[in-house]
């Protein structure tokens, strides 16, 4: 069974469209090389999605969009 198939890809695309209608942006993070290859092999166009390599990068991006950052707690 594939890790990622065309049904999963279409679900992500439709979810992204719904999220955009709500005024937000879907971030796709942490794709393994195998899943990325499957997406390419399926010919799925995810160009409208922001993709980031890790959850940490995704959180940093989301915080930057809101002009926020994680800082140590004050003493």
In a few lines, what is going on in this structure?
The chain has about 80 residues and is mainly alpha-helical.
Molecular structure report:
By secondary structure, the protein is mainly alpha-helical. The protein contains three helices and two strands. The chain has helices spanning 6-21, 33-42, 55-65; strands spanning 27-29, 50-52. Strands 1-2 form a two-stranded parallel sheet. The longest helix has 16 residues, at 6-21. The N and C termini lie far apart (52 Å). The mean pLDDT is 88.
Distance between the termini: 52 Å
Shape verdict: flat
Q: Structural class, from secondary structure content?
A: mainly alpha
Provide the helix percentage.
40-55%
Rg estimate, integer Å: 15 Å
Residue runs with pLDDT of under 50 for 5 or more positions: none
Major β-sheet, in short? 2 strands, parallel
Output the number of helix runs.
3
Q: Average pLDDT, to the nearest integer?
A: 88
Record the strand order, biggest sheet: 1-2
Order of helices and strands: HEHEH
Assess the beta-strand content as a share of residues.
5-15%
